[in-house]
Prior knowledge:
alpha/beta; Isopropylmalate Dehydrogenase; cytoplasm (chains A, B); FA_synthesis (chains A, B); phospholipid biosynthesis (chains A, B)
Amino acid sequence: MIRISIDAMGGDHGPDVVIPALMTVATRRPDAHFIIYGQENLVRPILDKHPRLAENSELVHCDVAVGMDEKPSQALRHGRWKSSMWKAIEAVKSDAADVCISAGNTGALMAMSKFCLRTMASIDRPAIAAIWPTLRGESVVLDVGAGIGADAHQLVDFAILGTGMARAVFGIERPSVGLLNVGVEEVKGQEEVKEAGQMLREANLASLDYRGFVEGNDIGKGAVDVVVTEGFSGNIALKTAEGTARQFAAYLREAIGRSLLSRLGYILAKGAFDRLREKLDVGRSNGGVFLGLNGIVVKSHGGADSDGFAAAVDLGYDMVRNRLLDRIEADLDLFHARNPKAAGARRSDVETDEEG
Amino acid sequence: MIRISIDAMGGDHGPDVVIPALMTVATRRPDAHFIIYGQENLVRPILDKHPRLAENSELVHCDVAVGMDEKPSQALRHGRWKSSMWKAIEAVKSDAADVCISAGNTGALMAMSKFCLRTMASIDRPAIAAIWPTLRGESVVLDVGAGIGADAHQLVDFAILGTGMARAVFGIERPSVGLLNVGVEEVKGQEEVKEAGQMLREANLASLDYRGFVEGNDIGKGAVDVVVTEGFSGNIALKTAEGTARQFAAYLREAIGRSLLSRLGYILAKGAFDRLREKLDVGRSNGGVFLGLNGIVVKSHGGADSDGFAAAVDLGYDMVRNRLLDRIEADLDLFHARNPKAAGARRSDVETDEEG
């Protein structure tokens, strides 16, 4: 049985999207058990419409819901110990659940996750990993916004965390890893990135295949399975790609809408366009995974529809079934056993962006 | 008359692309005069095929051409004083030309441009500005890779440089400006970005309309006319957008190629798709402009075809006709007259990435 804790109050649509999504997952995954945290008067009526889901789940009432616009500090002040978001995370900590899913606001979810679960012993900063659709399939890209800036050691940690995720989600035994940079030559780029590259090359880890630097255009090509960067650049890359995909979709609509002939052509090619739209549907693939904490938290897109939220739940399910945390812990232990100096050289003034 | 110096040896195709491009521009712009630097035995035969261009241009023989793979330091060592790239830049310095265009390698072109033209008196670091196609038209985005990192003063300089370019190229009297960040709230992001935001808000410049922070997905929307960022994030954003556009084009080809019905649809809608492809053609719009130097240098895409190179020449022509440098100098003078402390507070350890 895989036990999944759910914050039913997160996202733009709350339980109206969350509960139907769980129904979808429950049908596909008979061994999934849900602990749903939310306001009973809002959740119960929807849950009662899905008797099969009701059988495989329990509902825990929470008075407080964290708002989508609350700052992390506000959310912590008024939502700690009692909000549906906190309770869902806490279920992972107390081992009542194996993974937590929320579509709530990213900053609050990260702040609460760090406060409740704490970072893993050898990690000093968590990362948010995104699954990025590429021409070759999918890649893991991290950090896409947990922090700002990262030193070489933290970038190496991200490489190990992302590798664990690629192994658990894609089933690749030794994922290829690239460091995001402004050129592929070894002399180029930020000092931290160059140093991390040297460390990864020298470490020669069995768990990952370090391929050197990659550039922004290599992400969409699927040049490597895991793309590692610090949170500022990673967030800008992710949002720029989303913006470009939307822009492309708008151009396509405009190009097709312009004449009767092209509209006719569109109708004939509709099946092909539906597949295209599916590939570009950011809501569907957009689940950010918090890595580096003592427990797995999956952040679903706030604007996700029921299919989108279900995809985030599926992702959480897969990571538990494939023992993501165990794999990451083993990889980290192996790395730090071989590189004992790494832990001591870390910087302590970790910037956490708690106010963001 | 607008005098344009041309490095005929740059780019993947050299004079085979450059000379036909100049012919195109010469037809459109009868007052353009070209000074072409390159190997006479390669350039002359192509020039002789275009007698109208030959009338409006002079060819200066240069023995040395800078290779596309040469590092900036190598290029400076063997190409300074004598290569076609150097000579074309030097023509701007000696006031034989108003603007220089090259499709040569970016690192070498920037290193030579800095060495030959030097940065403007009140600027300590140049920027590369890209023209980014958006849903509302086009925006200027800078820095897309001249340097790595920028302090708050340098970001403010970039805002003034980019504004001057938006005024000269788009004809907007008071362009809107945004700082690229990971959120739009004032408390978010890198310290340098927050500080630059405060400086721009307080300066309340007549030449630009500061709109606060923008995120990666705002670039493609055309949320502001000028997007300001440091070179690492800017380069990653630009290349990620290029990669996503290529990815989208590949999906489209794949979606359309799959069935007879959708191919028929494509043929009917072909006019619409041709317009779409034109909008997404990075080669056509991709001209980076070096700003902050005592002279304008336009870098055309290395892989550009004749239309792409012609677009870069057109861009250079427009900037000269609209007195870009005068505008920038006036804006900088105005800003520094009002903010006399700014110059003293700059950091001197400018990272130039000369080796990249």
